[in-house]
Amino acid sequence: xxxxxxxxxxxxxxxxxxxxxxxxxxxxxxxxxxxxxxxxxxxxxxxxxxxxxxxxxxxxxxxxxxxxxxxxxxxxxxxxxxxxxxxxxxxxxxxxxxxxxxxxxxxxxxxxxxxxxxxxxxxxxxxxxxxxxxxxxxxxxxxxxxxxxxxxxxxxxxxxxxxxxxxxxxxxxxxxxxxxxxxxxxxxxxxxxxxxxxxxxxxxxxxxxxxxxxxxxxxxxxxxxxxxxxxxxxxxxxxxxxxxxxxxxxxxxxxxxxxxxxxxxxxxxxxxxxxxxxxxxxxxxx
Length: 286
What we know:
By secondary structure, the protein is an alpha/beta fold. The chain has helices spanning 44-50, 77-91, 103-115, 136-143, 145-148, 153-165, 174-181, 186-198, 203-206, 232-241, 257-260, 262-274; strands spanning 8-12, 15-22, 28-33, 54-59, 97-101, 121-125, 219-224, 246-250. It has an eight-stranded mixed sheet with strand order 1-2-4-3-5-6-7-8, with helices on both faces.
């Protein structure tokens, strides 16, 4: 398994962000946003495929992956939306194509609706977008994050490993699971894991979900049919709220569609990104 490294650094208002780009300059830009508790690593296969025809920008949000983690860091959805708008300005991207997964979906929606970020088209993959969200485990940890931070490292490791595993329907390759868990280990990583859960307040999606009808860009909603973290019914509801949005479900995939069905997801994204069209038909599934 080849390494995934982000070579560039941007100093954001929430700490240093690691980022990189793939593909040739001058090609149509695509920005990929990861979710929680993941990093840009989950996009590696899709990013390399899209880079054949696009310049692909990938980044780890503050407090995630290879980006900076520190005590007192604001890693909330509110902060991440601002950071994304900052990054787009730093990259000089005025109207890129955007593909966002999970928590990254809320980040992209907030950046657009609250911070003026403009996209040529938006693909949302199993996004955190509609209330209620957060599993019983997620809510339990959020309420008692300071207690969980004190878990012995071995117990913390086992907990994170089991939690990340549950995002996949067919199961993750052990090497991939190790890679996804690694940023959350050690003193800094363990504290950062519980910090991001503690700050994951539903108020940040409540603030924008009644405005999804304002979205005028071409929008694709992709959903893993077997997602147990956020059921596919949320995908149908979201697609119905966004004018002209189309819903595409992916069989055999759980919440972590990039790992469960990378070829199917890539094919859906390539088709959409090459010919994005808004408002032509009612939402449909396949």
